[in-house]
Write a structure and sequence with these properties.
9% strand, two-stranded antiparallel sheet, alpha+beta, 2-methylcitrate dehydratase PrpD, four-stranded mixed sheet, globular, 9 strands, 20 helices, 516 residues, 2 domains, 60s Ribosomal Protein L30, Chain: A
Length: 516
């Protein structure tokens, strides 16, 4: 890996393309390096992981709404949509949109945390949609996904967005564009322009993850994937992009990040170096924000030691800056303590998550967020006894580049009403590569079967898993097998109609009469 210095340049300096981050990213994407066997294996794992979460979220309203929007854009050859038959094809950017929402809705797929936060599995829907539409084979898809992961992880290592309240999809747009470029075998020049265009149109604020968090949290990565596809398409037609996107005098770093005097160090593979970043990432065993993964495991371990939870006077979670300020009491979000809060908000409340995990000794993607569960009096009482504090040591470990030191957990101190203290700590989740039970292919398949039960027919489950096992050798036209179909009754329905339904739904005017 080579570290690249990235800073603002005045227009008069005329920074050459070879010195621009977008060009360096494009060079990595265009480098036809072979994908290593363990990377291929992990890509297959993450294709399964995405499908698992999509199966569990298929009937949820945001997913049904996104799917309805996609279905309004049929296209041939097109791309597949989770839940629909393989022959039902839609325009690739809309397939990426619908599948991206399905993958992201439950906050239950893979993660990478460094200077910034990310869910690199969000790269898969747009790259796969383009690969299906363009008739690529499994080897091309694997190369594209490897690039998407590499670029996103490298940007996340080098450039912090959240301190400036910029949402992490600003790294996803460029990485997805780069991955699509690799899959299609595009030249460096084309990928360079597409990466910049994608950055420019996917820079949004972190309000999507603050306060009363809405379904946009699931839509945001899908939006980035959709915009990446449109950016690549536009640039392939000969159009350009704002340049230099990161280093420009009025660009990303100068006005949205740390300013004209700031300098970032972004690692990227050198020419001929394999793209291995996916191996640095980790998935979720529990459907909750990643910083809660280890603490759910710790709660399950501590519950029996505490015993009667009504004896608890207070619980203090000593943890990293991110956990305290984003999902802890340091966020100062009253919604994080509100039993009537949305699922998306509860997912970002470590106080709620730890309380329920203590009570239940487990975590479930639906039951743990049910309104009746959130409103249970005993849970609310325990929940409001929990607070977080930043511990500099846990913050240091969070940002450590040493895999043996990097940690996303914390130390929990439980004080009982009689004054007794029970404490324990955990560094990483059990499913983490350095955890007690690292996930391997059988674990990903087990997760898929558990979440697909009652949704995807067993024969369809087997067909999908068999297709993933053949991923690198799938031929052109066979990538449509990397989806699943369900009975229509399992799909759920969008809550309302929209603009895309209008031409064929004259009755809409009864609901939205013209204003006078």
């Amino acid at each position: 890996m080579k570290l690249h210095s990235v800073r603002t340049h005045k227009s008069a300096e005329n920074l050459p393309r070879a010195g621009q981050l977008a060009w360096k990213i494009a060079e990595v994407a265009a480098d036809p390096v072979q994908v290593e066997a363990e990377v291929v294996e992990m890509i297959g794992n993450r294709v399964i992981d995405n499908a698992s979460v999509a199966a569990a979220s298929l009937a949820r309203r945001p997913v049904a709404s996104a799917r309805a929007q996609a279905e309004a854009h049929p296209f041939k050859p097109g791309a597949t949509v989770f839940g629909l038959p393989q022959e039902r094809r839609v325009s690739p950017e809309w397939a990426a949109w619908a599948n991206g929402v399905a993958v992201r809705e439950l906050d239950f797929h893979d993660t990478f945390l460094a200077a910034e936060y990310s869910h690199p599995g969000d790269n898969i829907p747009p790259v796969l949609a383009v690969a299906q539409h363009c008739g690529l084979d499994g080897a091309a898809l694997v190369r594209g996904i490897a690039t998407g992961y590499e670029i996103q992880v490298d940007l996340v290592k080098g450039i912090c967005l959240h301190e400036h309240k910029i949402d992490h999809i600003a790294h996803l747009g460029p990485s997805a564009a780069a991955g699509i470029g690799t899959a299609l075998g595009l030249p460096t020049e084309t990928i360079y322009q597409a990466v910049q265009n994608a950055l420019h149109v996917t820079t949004t604020t972190r309000q999507s993850r603050k306060g009363e968090i809405s379904s946009w949290k699931a839509y945001a990565p899908a939006f980035a994937g959709k915009m990446a596809i449109e950016a690549v398409d536009r640039v392939m037609r000969g159009e350009g992009a704002p340049s230099p996107a990161w280093e420009g005098e009025d660009g990303f770093i100068a006005y949205l990040l740390s300013g004209p005097k700031a300098e970032y160090q972004v690692p990227l593979p050198e020419k001929g170096e394999p793209k291995r970043a996916i191996l640095d990432t980790y998935t979720k065993e529990h459907s909750a924000e990643y910083q809660s993964q280890a603490l759910i495991d710790l709660a399950r371990r501590m519950g029996p030691k505490i015993g009667d939870l009504t004896r608890v006077r207070s619980i203090v979670i000593h943890t990293s800056h991110h956990t305290h300020y984003v999902i802890g009491t340091g966020a100062n979000d009253p919604q994080k303590m509100d039993p009537a809060a949305s699922r998306e908000t509860l997912d970002h409340s470590i106080m709620y998550i730890f309380a329920v995990a203590l009570e239940d000794g487990s975590w479930h993607h639906e039951k743990s967020y049910a309104p009746e569960r959130a409103g249970r009096p005993g849970a609310v009482e325990l929940w409001r006894k929990i607070s977080t504090v930043e511990d500099p040591e846990w913050t240091r470990r969070y940002h450590s580049q040493d895999p043996g030191q990097k940690a996303f957990g914390g130390r929990v101190v439980v004080t009982l009403k009689g004054g007794a203290v029970i404490s324990d700590e955990i560094a990483v989740a059990d499913a983490h590569p350095s955890g007690a039970r690292p996930f391997t292919r059988p674990d990903y398949i087990r997760k898929f079967r558990a979440l697909a039960e009652g949704v995807i027919a067993p024969t369809e489950q087997e067909r999908f898993i068999a297709a993933v096992e053949r991923l690198p050798s799938l031929r052109s036209g066979e990538l449509s097998e990397l989806t699943f179909a369900v009975e229509p009754a399992r799909l759920g329905a969008a809550a309302a109609h929209g603009i895309f339904d209008w031409p064929s739904c004259g009755h809409l005017q009864q609901h939205f009469p013209p204003t006078t």
